[in-house]
Amino acid sequence: MTGCTMTSKVGLLVIGLIFWAVAAGLFFVGGWVFNTYKHFDEIAEANFTLIPASIIIAVGVLMFIVGIVGCIAGFKENKCLLAVLFSLLLVILTALITSGALGYAFRVDVANAVENGLDKAIDAYHPNSTQKDQMDYLQRNLKCCGVRNASDWLHAKNWAPTANNAVPRSCCVSGINCTEEERKKYNDPKFIYVKGCFEKLEHEFMDNLAYIAGTAIGLTVIMILGMICSCILFCRSKEVRYEALGGQYSGLRV
Question: Could you list the residue ranges forming a coiled coil in this record (predicted)?
Answer without folding.
Answer: none
